[in-house]
Design goal:
The structure holds two protein chains of two kinds. Chain A is mainly beta. Chain A is about 0% helix and about 60% strand.
């Protein structure tokens, strides 16, 4: 498996609190992505990065922000968590488009 | 924007039989079509992909076909085995662009021994 690690793997948080999910890669891949997976929706892109400090929005970016200060780390922040953000979050990496390797996923529950 | 529809949502087959999953897309400019397999509780894995300059691609027991005119593509699994049981996702994008990759809603395949 490609060297890609997500943390935490599980988190329960309260509505209105900020939450940060981390994706760490050891492959030195240029592209990194954050997806959310919900029943009946497949995978939907939240944000992606095409290099250090280079990020852009995906199709469901409202309520989320990202940062990439190093090649190996891509952080996803829920600025003020809501129940609709309860989901499984996957990070993915690739050297060239499209995403080829996914992390193990983070199950986030907002209560 | 692109829209990808995937059918069926669930599929049950006997071990050794073939399984076919179909996807249609709306954006005629899409030219890259990957398939991902996700076992229960695991991460998605890219299993095969096809670009619009070919009509079919095979890798052992799996194959993908593409009909650009009809804007649909299919995943074929032959001689199914219990370990093929998983959720399969199709996707489509322009120029292989990861930021434009749109996923189907998934097909849960169950292979019974």
């Amino acid at each position: 498996d490609a060297g890609i690690t997500q943390s935490p793997r599980h988190k329960v948080t309260e509505t209105g609190t900020p939450v940060t999910l981390r994706c760490h890669q050891t492959e030195n891949h240029r592209y990194m992505y954050w997806y959310r997976q919900d029943p009946g929706h497949g995978l939907r892109l939240i944000h992606y990065s095409y290099g250090v400090k280079d990020t852009d929005k995906g199709e469901v970016s409202d309520g989320y922000s990202v940062s990439r200060s190093k090649t190996e780390d891509f952080l996803l922040t829920l600025e003020s968590a809501t129940s609709s953000q309860t989901s499984v979050y996957f990070c993915a990496i690739s050297e060239s488009n499209p995403p080829a390797f996914f992390g193990q996923g983070t199950r986030l529950t907002v209560v | 924007g692109e829209n990808v529809e995937q059918h069926p949502s669930t599929l049950s087959v006997q071990e050794g039989d073939s399984a076919v999953i179909k996807c249609t897309y709306s954006d005629s400019a899409s030219n890259y079509f990957p398939w991902y397999k996700q076992e229960l509780g695991k991460r998605p894995q890219l299993i095969i992909d096809i670009r619009s300059n070919v009509g079919e691609k095979k890798d052992q027991r799996i194959a993908v076909t593409l009909n650009k005119t009809a804007k649909h593509f299919s995943l074929h699994i032959t001689e199914t085995q219990p370990e093929d049981s998983a959720v399969y996702f199709c996707a489509a994008s322009r120029n292989g662009a990861g930021d434009k990759l749109i996923f189907g809603t998934g097909t849960r395949l169950q292979v019974f021994p």
